[in-house]
Every structure is written in structure tokens, then in C-alpha cells.
Amino acid sequence: MEFTPRRILDNALDAVGNTPLIRLDKIAAEHGLKCNLLGKLEFVSAGGSVKDRIAKAMVLAAEKEGKLIPGKSVVIEPTSGNTGIGLAMACAIKGYSVVITMPKKMSLEKEALLRALGAQVIRTPDEEPWDSPRSHIGVACKLQREIEHGIILDQYRNINNPLAHEYTTGPEIIASVVSTPSTRTRPSSMKVDAFVAGAGTGGTVTGVSRALKKTHNADCIVVGIDPIGSILALPNSLNIDGEGKPYVVEGIGYDFIPDVLSRDVPDVNHWVKTSDEDAFKAVQALMRKEGLLVGGSSGSALSGALAWFETEQGRKVAGTEGLNVVVLLPDGIRNYMSKEWFLKNAFQTEHSDLATRISGILAQEETVPVQKANL
């Protein structure tokens, strides 16, 4: 078997990013897509999500600017979890203390991982608006004021958030597409023709969009995905139905517009609203058809892409052989295995001939002795 040797890395931060782009051919075929449907698989990054990239970028930039003091600085960050995990990993390596504030709806697995990496974790009420002193953002600001050498790197306003994706995620996607030859059986435009990603802080969709449009394909269509209940989508009329409604999917959507998110054309050409139900169905499809153990927001991204394919613009792309549509899959199922939606998906029984056959076999009384040769 051929393999490409990799050099020894200095630490886990060197294993952030450089994630694979994978064909989602079975899902594409099921939905009658002629274009190439491709998934950018971020859970194989060292910390387990796309947020590793911005955590690394923000810490390194703060060190370079003299904002982090070895042995003294306490990094404080409000987060839905993945940025916190990335920061806790980076700070464990760098030697900084970490305090994470996180809404209660976020998974127990995220809290456990944060604590395992040495972070202090404070949970905040889900129902508090972002500007409440009791929200995860409000509590982080209070701690920053009171803790000596406390610093909030602030993923919502830190320019290194979108820059991390403009300089790494986007170029990686471009490199994967242009280095894969077009063949008779697998035609390719050799360009990224459309990019689909969920928006939380918005740094991912903004930064990748800029990389694609500035240096690669100015005509690339960028589709932002926003859960029902959030207010990030444009036009604002998209957000009226279900505004403020709680949603289960973690890591995307907000009740305010983060500074790092550019919602307008040309950065984001089209917005799609998605439901929890559609997201979790898409997660199940990614697992059972493509073997990808992704998290809920990956399902949002895929279900949003499939919904966009039903629009006039999307149908043209879906029906054209060789066009490349990249869907960003932000994290893996590791963070959600105790969640009700995942357990329902995992243990949901689907009728099959094999299951019927197994039940019939096990219902029979066994009279034949087990022979070693049969094992």
C-alpha cells in the first residue's frame, strides 16, 4: 500500500486543519444530483472541529501582539463549545489558564472535554439574551473585569476568526479541487462552483467566501445556513417565522449579528433556513450512507444544501455534471453522543430483510453443538 510520509509535528497545534475533502456520492445519487457533492471533513482536526483553526489563530496573534503573558494571562471565552475546546487545547500547550462560559443547552460531552483539557467551565441560562449580564457573554465580561490578567479573545469580533478561514480552510478546499483531475467518469470544472456552510459567529462562511472569490472563482456561489429561531439570514423576512424559537442544533445561529459575519453579497449570495428535524435526518444519512460520524450542525449544512438545490439557482448547479459543490461539515458526533436526537437516530430500528432473518434464526431452539471449526 502506498502512503505519503508526514514529518513529526512539534505539537497538536500543527495538526490543526489540513482536513480532507470527501465525495458524498451516495447522497448525491439519492437526490438525483449530477454535480459533484463534496464534504469538507473538519472533525479530523486535532481538537475535533473547524473551530480549532480560529482558536489557534487567535492565540498566536495575541501572543505576537503581546496581549498574552506567559504564566499570568487567563483566557476567558464565551462559546457554544467548540471554540472553547480549541482554545483549551491551545492554552494547554501554551501554558495559559482558561475559563469557558457556555449555555446550559450545550452538550455534557463538550463540558467534559473542556474540563479534561484543564479549563474552568461556567454554565449560563439558555433563555438569557446575548446582552444580558447573565448570558454566557455577560458572565465572561464580568469575569474579565474581575480576574487579574483576564483576556477575552472574542471570536465574535476578532478579525483572526475569518482570516483563519481565508488563509487556511479556503485555500485547502481550492487545492483539493484543482489538484483532482477531471476524468470521463468523474468530470470536474476544476473550480469550486458553490460553497455551503452554517453560520454561528460567521467567521467560517465569511473567510472561506473571501478566499474563494478573491483568488479562485469570483462567480462561486456561497450559501449561508441559519437555523430556524436565529436571526442571521438575509433578507430579514426569512427570520420572522420562528424568530426566537429555541433550537436543538448547537454551534450555529445567534440572536445578534456578530461583527465578523459579512451577511451581504458578495460574501454570501444566498441564505437558507433549516430545522432541527431536517438537520438530524441529514446527520443520519451522512452516517449510514457515507460512513461519516458528524455532528448536528453538519446535518444543518447538508440539509441546507439540499434545500438550496431545490431553488432555481440551485437546480441549475445540481443538474450540471462536473460542477463542484463543497459543504463544510464542522464537527463530529463525539460531542453529542448523550443527546436525545443522536440516541434516537442510533437506536431507531428500520425494517430490513436481514433484521427479520436474524430474529427468525434467534427464535429457533439451538440443537447443534458449536464446533470450533465454525468459529
From TrEMBL:
GO term, biological process aspect, one: cysteine biosynthetic process from serine
Molecular function GO labels: cystathionine beta-synthase activity
Broad class of enzyme this protein falls into: lyase
Recorded metabolic or biological pathway in which this protein acts: Amino-acid biosynthesis; L-cysteine biosynthesis; L-cysteine from L-homocysteine and L-serine: step 1/2
Record's protein name: cystathionine beta-synthase
High-level lineage: Eukaryota, Fungi, Dikarya, Basidiomycota, Agaricomycotina
Keyword tags: Pyridoxal phosphate
Keyword Cytoplasm in annotation: no
EC number from the UniProt entry: 4.2.1.22
Catalytic activity as recorded in UniProt: L-homocysteine + L-serine = L,L-cystathionine + H2O
Domain Tryptophan synthase beta chain-like PALP: 14-330
Cofactor(s) named in the record: pyridoxal 5'-phosphate
Protein species of origin: Suillus plorans
Family affiliation: Belongs to the cysteine synthase/cystathionine beta-synthase family.
Pfam family, one: PALP
Matching InterPro entries: Cys_Synth/Cystath_Beta-Synth, P-phosphate_BS, TrpB-like_PALP, TrpB-like_PALP_sf
The keyword Cytoplasm belongs to this UniProt entry's keyword annotation: no
